[in-house]
Amino acid sequence: HVRIAAYAALAQLGDASHVDFLAEKTASTKGEEQKAARDSLYRLRGEQVDKKILAGIAKADPKLKIELIHAVAERNITTGADLLWKLARGSDSEVRVESVKALRAIAGERQLPELIGLVIYAKTEADRAEAENTVAAVARKIEDKDKRPEAILAVLPSVADVTAKCSLINVLGKIGADSSFPALHKALAEQNSSVKYAVV
Q1: How many CA atoms lie within 13 A of 10 on its CB side?
Q2: Distance from C-alpha of 42 to C-alpha of 54, rounded to nearest angstrom
Q3: Most buried pick, 21, 38, 79, 146, via CB within 10 A?
Q4: What are the backbone angles phi and psi of residue 175, rounded to the nearest 5°?
Q5: DSSP letter at 47?
Q6: Nearest-angstrom CA–CA distance, 163 and 102
Q7: What gap in Å lies between CA 44 and CA 101, rounded to an integer?
Q8: pLDDT reported for residue 155
Q9: DSSP 146
Q10: Average pLDDT in the chain
Q11: pLDDT-above-90 percentage for the chain
């Protein structure tokens, strides 16, 4: 209880110098203590806190790296989008998945082409599923509903891989824009049964 109270105090009184301490506690503790450390990390104030979190990701071990990635999303550190994009293409599967999840919170329309690339060239089914959800979530941030699927519609005709094409069709369904209908109707005419099933 004393440690939990100390974490809560750091949320109000702490600064960038406490980022490493709190991040390490989120990675090494469990239960209420872990929750308290996370909450404090997410609520730390000061101009340098976000920079310290981003700088710590590169040198962190995978478990700590994932906690810092969560902090990027929770704190809405939009300047971390390019870093997360690099991590989403890395060799560690769990780091890849968590980076793609975090991009849902901080990525914008500018990152859609790169995110669509994660769908097309996904290394595993888990990567592909998270990338689909992230592309759909980021596209739904676009105010004009008819423009939300544009980035996908631009690449869909050139995608030859059936699995990737079906994934992009799945994303169009998750976005739910009427402007996708012409492309979906055209895909129905294809001979591949998997593509037809995805469209339906």
Answers
A1: 24
A2: 13
A3: 38
A4: -75, -45
A5: T
A6: 24
A7: 22
A8: 97
A9: G
A10: 94
A11: 90
The predicted pLDDT at position 93 comes to 94
CA-nearest of 67, 92, 96 to 84 is: 96
CA–CA separation, 85 vs 99, rounded Å?
7
| Residue 72 backbone dihedrals phi, psi, to 5 degrees | -60, -45
Query: And the tokens for 94?
Result: 């769990």
pLDDT at 1 over 80: no
Residue 7 one-letter amino acid: Y
CB-CB contact of 73 with 106 (8 Å):
yes
Place of tokens 């290394």: 123
* Predicted local distance difference test score (pLDDT) of residue 178: 95
**Tokens at 192, concatenated:** 């591949």
Tokens for 154?
A: 């631009």
Side chain identity, residue 107: A
Output Rg (C-alpha) for the chain, integer angstroms.
20
Place of tokens 């050139």: 158
Q: What is the pLDDT of residues 123-180, one digit of tens each?
A: 999 999 999 999 999 999 999 999 999 999 999 999 999 999 999 999 999 999 999 9
